[in-house]
Every structure is written in C-alpha cells, then in structure tokens.
Design goal:
This protein is an all-alpha fold. It is 54% helix and 0% strand. Keywords: Membrane, Transmembrane, Transmembrane helix.
Length: 95
C-alpha cells in the first residue's frame, strides 16, 4: 500500500469511522430531502462530501457527477472557506 503524501495526516481509526458514520448519515438525510418538501439536500450532501474527502475520496466522485447538486458541491469546494485559498504576501508594506 502506498503511503500518503507527507503533508497530509491520515485520520486515526476512530476518527475514520466517525467521519464515515457522519458522512453516511448526512448523505441519507440529504437523500430524504429529495422527497420531502422544504428540506434542503445540498447542505447535507456538502457535509457528506467533506467527511468523505478525508476517509473515502473515491466515494465523492458520484456525488460530484450529480447533475443538479454536483455543481453546487464543486463550487463550495473551490470556494475554500476554511483558509485554503491564496495566502496574502507579507512584504513589509512594500508595493
């Protein structure tokens, strides 16, 4: 088995199972939201994708290919609200 990249920490066994359980629960809740009026789907599926990105990246691909909700999930992942965007340059106030 290939080792993960050095800058990415592999989750422990307990956190792996917790993330899997939360991901499955959010995916199921979002699926229920497809059939129940006024219940959001995209929010729950975004949470599931974030959980699955840490534990099962191959499980994310089918969610991203969903025609209506997939583009919203892709937009959220590119938005990077958790500080994953570009870093500001600090050059001592020089132009």
């Amino acid at each position: 088995m290939a080792s993960p990249p050095p800058d990415r920490k592999r989750p422990s066994r307990l956190s792996h199972r917790v993330l899997d359980a939360v991901g499955v629960a959010m995916l199921a809740t979002g699926t229920v939201g497809l059939f129940v009026p006024y219940m959001p789907t995209t929010v729950f599926w975004i949470i599931a994708v974030v959980c699955f990105l840490k534990t099962r990246p191959h499980a994310v691909r089918p969610l991203l290919r969903t025609p209506i909700i997939g583009p919203a999930i892709i937009w959220f992942l590119r938005w990077r609200p958790f500080g994953g965007g570009r870093k500001k340059k600090r050059n001592g106030g020089k132009g």
